Amino acid sequence: MRPANMVTSVADVLAGIAIAGVFTRVAAPTVPAYLSNILLLSFSTACLYAGGIVFNDVFDAELDKIERPERAIPSGIISLKQAATLGVILLLLGITAAFLSGIVSGLLAAAIAFFALLYNKFSKHHFIFGPLNMGICRGLNLLLGISIKPPLLPIWYFLAIVPIIYIFCITMISRGEVNGGSKRNLYIAALLYGIVAANIAYFGFYNHTLWLTAFFLCPFLWMIFKPLIKAIKDPAGKNIGAAVKAGVISLILMDAAWAATFSTIYVALLIACLLPISLWLARIFAVT
Length: 288
Description:
- This protein is mainly α.
- It has helices at 3-19, 31-59, 61-67, 80-101, 103-123, 129-146, 153-156, 161-174, 183-206, 210-233, 237-249, 251-262, 265-272, 274-284.
- It has one domain (3-284): Tetracycline Repressor, domain 2, CATH 1.10.357.140.
C-alpha cells in the first residue's frame, strides 16, 4: 500500500482544498462546516492511492517474481487473491467516501480509480501513455480537493497540468530503477521539473505571495534536484531509485507551496508537517 506515498496523496487533496479557498482568512469561520468533507476527501484519496498501488503489485506479480521477489505477493506474504480483494475494497471505500462529500467529488474519485487501473493493466509499459496516465491520476487528485467547492472546478481545472507534468517525469525516470536508466530521460526530467517550479512561482507572483511560495518552493527544488543530479552523473538503478523516492515524497512540499500561494502560511506549514511523517514511513516501507 506504500504508506509513505499515501501521505503525499492527502497533501494533494489538502492543497486542492486550499486552492478552493476553504482555509483563507475570509472563509475561516466556515471551516468547521467543511470539516467532514475535508476528512472524507482525505480518507478517499488515501484509499484510492493505496488501492491503485495494491493493483500495481497484483498486475505485476509475475514480473516481480524476477525483478522484485521481496515484494509481498511474490514472497508469499499475501496471496494474489487476497491482494486483489484488498485492492477492490480500498478503491470502493475511496469512491464511496468521495460520494459522501459530493457527487462531483465521487465522480472524480471514480475517474481516479479508472485511470489507476488503466495504468496498472494496460498503459504502464508504454513510453508516453504510461507516464501521462499516472500524471492524470495525480492531476485528478488535486481536482478532488478543489471539488470541495464544485463551482470552482471550471475556474482552476487547468492547474491539474502541473502535477500531470511532474508525475510524468517521475514515472518516466522510474523505469530505470532496476537496470539503470538513460541520461536523456534524466535531462528531460530536469527541464520539466523547472517548468513545474516556474508555474508555481508564477501564481505566487500573480497572487502577491511569491515570498511565501518561495519559502516552500526552494526546499522542494533542493529535495528533487540533489538526487536527480547524482543520477545524471551516474544513472545506476540505485541512484535513479533515490531520485524517484525523493520526487514522490517532495510532492508534500510542492503542495505546501500551492497552499502558501492560494491560502495562508499556516495551512502551508500544516501540509509541510506531513513531510517528516512520510519520511519516517519511507524508512519502514518501500516507496517505489
